[in-house]
Design brief:
Layout (H helix, E strand, L loop, with lengths): L11 E7 L6 H13 L4 E6 L14 H15 L4 E4 L1 H5 L4 H11 L4 E7 H6 L6 H7 L2 E4 L5 H5 L2 H5 L4 E2 L15 E3 L9 H7 L4
Parallel strand pairs: 1-2, 1-4, 2-3, 4-5, 5-7, 6-7
Bound molecules: adenosine-5'-triphosphate (ATP) and nicotinate mononucleotide (NCN).
Length: 202
Amino acid sequence: MKRNEALAPGMTVGLLGGSFNPAHEGHLHLTRMCLRALALDRIWWLVSPQNPLKSASGMAPQAARVKAAEELVAKSGEPGIVVTDIETRLRTRFTIDTVRALKARHHDIRFVWLMGADNLLQLPRWAKWRELTREVPIAVYPRPDFTLKARLSPAATMLKSATLDQSDAALLAHVAPPALVFLEGPEHPASATSIRAARGES
Ligand SMILES: Nc1ncnc2c1ncn2[C@@H]1O[C@H](COP(=O)(O)OP(=O)(O)OP(=O)(O)O)[C@@H](O)[C@H]1O
Ligand SMILES: O=C(O)c1ccc[n+]([C@@H]2O[C@H](COP(=O)([O-])O)[C@@H](O)[C@H]2O)c1
């Protein structure tokens, strides 16, 4: 993570955790939209060693997923995206542990957790999810079939009083959690499941 060396106090960093099995244009789209709407300095793609809720079968080795993600980012020419296997180096699997470890390492960086709308629906299945919402502000980007469902989800209801207007999205990294924003913008249809299916993989 060479570009991490260029981190300066007060910088804002979005964390996009994912399996990236494989990385695709949907990840790039969400990342570009979040960089701008949230006024972030960087977005780190945290290539997960293994999502605790997903089967390991059909999961490409983490090194291969990182390499493919780096190639996609390099081809995109988008500055500000850092692909990292840091969860392996931190020995964390659960997002709550990753976020706490990153905050402990980088006291003066303002982190925001990014996710597509589908992930907000499953957030209540994550380890210590309520505590996670008190550790880091969260931004949710639209995704086909899930945009409205996310807004009506149990996690959205729980965070209703902590939800910012889209017009205040650029403040998200600077407010104390819990804080949530639903971003608005065009949906992108790409999904790793459909890419694997088109390749004849599981
Ligand atoms: N097209 C998309 N639009 C919005 N968010 C997306 C899109 N694709 C992925 N994301 C978000 O990126 C993060 C990482 O996603 P992930 O790597 O699991 O890709 P995926 O396409 O959802 O994979 P799979 O189909 O295997 O579940 C998640 O928060 C997910 O919601
Ligand atoms: O912490 C948890 O319990 C947890 C459960 C499921 C998923 N996550 C995280 O959610 C992110 C998105 O995962 P995925 O596989 O849907 O791309 C990734 O960073 C995972 O580690 C985290």
